[in-house]
Structure formats: structure tokens, C-alpha cells
Design goal:
Length: 181
């Protein structure tokens, strides 16, 4: 039994490679869109928008070892920052990406803007659903509400204003329920 356990542990593949995928067409050029630790390097196809950190060994050249160690230092320095706030850089201006850095505050704002906008929209829709008198009512309750709004009306102008108000409430409620701003 012990022999099988040891053989099983020795036969298990363990990868130490870290993968960083950069998107040159993102809101911030070369924004990191994926960061994975312990990936299988043999499953990766060549890609200019990807950085791979590999534990160095005797088959690597000194230049490769230097690049890997430099990338490792950068990745370790960024551990407290979410990967969506990283970007890949061409450190030596040779046209290929070699490093990862933290985005500037302005770049982070650019990346976060759609998320903030969705959160504000969601809050607006939630507020509409909770404050609109027709949003949480049954059809019978809505019918009674419309009748109660029309009962005190004596002129055509008043009726037009009341109907416009009620129709707008119903439309806003419908959009809020559907999640459309």
C-alpha cells in the first residue's frame, strides 16, 4: 500500500508556472485580463499577449533566468492588488511585453468606470422599485390606484395630467423590473 501511495504522489504532475494574459484592445492597453498560478506550460500555445513565469533550471539561458526572476519579483510585488488593475509593459521598448506593473490611478478609474456605472444603475432601479407606488402591486391594486387618482379629476386637463403621471409610473416600474435604465 505504501509503495502505491508513494508512486501515486511521484506520478502526480505539479506545475509552478504562472500565466499572465494581457489584452492590447482593452480599455487600458495591455490590461491583464487573466492571471493563473500553477498552470501546465505544455498546454500553452505561443501568444505575444501572454507572459509566463517559469521556475528556472539549468536548461535556461542567463537572459531567460533574468527575465523569469524579474517577472517573479513583479508578480510578488503585486499580490495585494487585484489583477484587473495590472497591465503588461514593454520594459525595454523592443516591441514585446516583458513585465507587469500596477496601473495608474487614472487607468484604474477607466477600468472601474463600467462597474461603477452598473452599480449606480442597479441602485437607481432598486430605488425606483421601492419608491414607485405601482411596482410591487397586483393588477387589482394598480387598477384601484389608477381609479383613486382619477376620482378627484373634474376637467379634461386634470385627467390628462393624472393619466400622464400614472402612465410614467407604470413605465418606470416596468423598466425597473426588467433591469433597463
Amino acid at each position: 500500500m505504501r509503495c502505491w501511495l508513494i508512486w501515486g504522489l511521484m506520478g502526480t504532475a505539479a506545475w509552478a508556472d504562472d500565466l499572465v494574459v494581457c489584452d492590447p484592445s482593452a480599455l487600458v492597453t495591455n490590461q491583464v485580463v487573466k492571471y493563473e498560478q500553477s498552470v501546465d506550460p505544455s498546454a500553452l500555445s505561443p501568444n505575444a499577449n501572454r507572459l509566463v513565469w517559469t521556475a528556472t533550471n539549468e536548461t535556461h539561458t542567463e537572459k531567460q533566468k533574468g527575465s523569469f526572476e524579474s517577472l517573479r519579483v513583479q508578480l510578488d510585488a503585486l499580490t495585494a492588488i487585484q489583477p484587473s488593475h495590472w497591465k503588461c509593459v514593454d520594459a525595454d521598448a523592443d516591441g514585446s511585453l516583458e513585465g507587469v506593473v500596477e496601473m495608474t490611478h487614472a487607468e484604474k478609474d477607466t477600468v472601474d468606470a463600467p462597474v461603477v456605472a452598473r452599480a449606480l444603475e442597479s441602485a437607481s432601479l432598486t430605488a425606483e422599485r421601492s419608491s414607485n407606488p405601482v411596482c410591487e402591486h397586483t393588477l387589482k391594486e394598480i387598477d384601484d390606484y389608477v381609479d383613486s387618482q382619477l376620482t378627484p379629476v373634474v376637467t379634461f386637463v386634470d385627467a390628462k395630467q393624472v393619466l400622464a403621471t400614472v402612465l410614467k409610473e407604470i413605465a418606470r416600474c416596468g423598466r425597473a423590473r426588467a433591469g433597463v435604465e
